[in-house]
Amino acid sequence: MRVMLAEDSTLLREGLVRLLAEEGHEVIAAVGNAELLLKAVAEDQPDVVVADVRMPPTHTDEGLRAALEIRERWPGIGVLVLSQYVEKRYATELLTGESEGSEGVGYLLKDRVVQVDEFLDALERVARGRAAFDPEVVRQLLGRTTHTDLLGRLTTRERGVLAEMAQGHTNAAIADRLHISQSGVEKHINAIFDKLELAGGEGYSRRVLAVLRYLDS
């Protein structure tokens, strides 16, 4: 993969550069702020961008804003954002931005980066046009939902399948992770769509809408 990094911590940025190079990926730019990231992407589009949510000059949401702009201007580029903490609003904005659906987007806690296999798996999923949300992000988002009437319709197993969907796993991966058959996963997903009143033919993927039901504040 061709990767661009935006992280103001020199230590973390250089560590990621080395890690990705060792895994055979090409890091075509590694910058320390959102402005330089957008400039680099405009000059040479990568397969995927990894960006910290908070970067100079204000250390609030510069990285997120850059990620949203990249998704809008270059929808074919995967975007994986990193955050020190679970920030519900940022995860929601990534899923509900101007670009179509949640294809090629991810949100990971920085602690997940040290779990190299999980980080690389998430990066590859995003680069391939799939979603990758940190399990802790998903747990907290689902736990804070205001749609308790709809959530209450789901069984424990269906909630587990929904959490795996939100992380961006395929049906086959969900079956393996939850130790059930793939046909069983498909039945649970259809039940989730029915209980959450998600009819077919929606503009957004129903898998995405199943998660968005719980992201409203």
Automatic annotation (TrEMBL):
Keyword set, alphabetical order: DNA-binding, Phosphoprotein, Transcription, Transcription regulation
One Pfam match: Response_reg
Domain HTH luxR-type span(s) in chain numbering: 147-217
Residues carrying 4-aspartylphosphate: D52
Listed SMART domains: HTH_LUXR, REC
PROSITE patterns registered for this protein in UniProt: HTH_LUXR_2, RESPONSE_REGULATORY
Domain Response regulatory as annotated: residue spans: 2-125
CDD domains, per the entry: LuxR_C_like (cd06170), REC_NarL-like (cd17535)
Domain of life: Bacteria
PANTHER family noted in UniProt: TRANSCRIPTIONAL REGULATORY PROTEIN NARL-RELATED, TWO-COMPONENT RESPONSE REGULATOR
Name of this protein: Response regulator
Species per Swiss-Prot/TrEMBL record: Streptomyces cellulosae
